[in-house]
TrEMBL record:
This is X8 domain-containing protein. Keywords: Signal. It comes from the Eukaryota. One of its GO terms (cellular component) is plasmodesma. The keyword Signal applies. It comes from Panicum hallii var. hallii. Transmembrane segments: none annotated. Residues 1-28 form the signal peptide. The keyword Ion transport does not apply. Residues 31-114 form the X8 domain. InterPro entries: X8 (IPR012946), X8_dom_prot (IPR044788).
């Protein structure tokens, strides 16, 4: 094979960078933030209150699609994910004092959609 011109090498390099960047963005869109089942109720309540002070938590209010199951772990997980999604799906937006996990499996259920 012959030598590549600098222009063609630059185009190939730019294409690879773009491919890597868009691949990372696509991967980030396929993640969700959920509460660790082992998190204490006290921490989950703090997480729920904080997340809902930053984003709308209407979906977990009575009558909302994520109201049931009516338990703290479920509601906190939905609220934490709403915060995570609204802030760019960065791992640090799902830390919640080490009481949350980033998952690749969609936790949506019934009419409750995790965004």
């Amino acid at each position: 094979m012959g030598a590549q011109s600098p222009a063609s090498l630059l185009l190939v390099s730019m294409g690879l960078v773009l491919l890597c960047f868009t691949s990372g963005v696509a991967d980030a869109q396929k993640t969700w933030c959920v509460a660790k089942p082992s998190a204490s109720n006290q921490v989950l309540l703090l997480n729920l209150n904080y997340a809902c002070s930053q984003v709308s938590c209407a979906v977990i209010q009575k009558g909302g699609p994520c109201y049931y199951p009516d338990n703290l772990v479920s509601r906190a997980a939905v609220a934490m994910n709403l915060y995570y999604a609204a802030n760019g799906r960065h791992p640090w937006n799902c830390y919640f004092n080490n009481s949350a996990l980033v998952v690749r499996s969609d936790p949506s259920y019934g009419s409750c959609t995790y965004y």
